[in-house]
Dabb family protein
Amino acid sequence: MEDSSRRKFLQNAGLASLVSISPLTEEPERASELFIHHVLFYLKDPNNAQDEAKLLEGLKKLAKVPQIQFVNIGKPASTSRSVIVRDYTFSWMCFFKNIIEEELYQTHPIHDEFRRDYAHLWEKVVIYDSVGPKKLS
């Protein structure tokens, strides 16, 4: 079996097993909710330009995961109000059609490579996942 055919087969098999054991089978509306995955990355050495460039390289590779509908790689804005968090190095925000697509992203080989090849650069990550309607009324 070719690599691409094998990968597609495994993704489809994973999706089928996820759906069969998922609470989504009991709550089909959740499969239609937009899923937003927001990660704040904190470099071990926040003043190291090479580490920052390397992590940015990795995030750009990660953005190629096909399940991602939209991605934004950001740096802290220059806004300064007491409620704004600005101590992270990169913000990674991506949108998925639903939670199933996000689960496929989590197990995608590109995501696995990203964690394997770049995790040594950060001291911590903070993740905010949210769901909501695809359209606001």
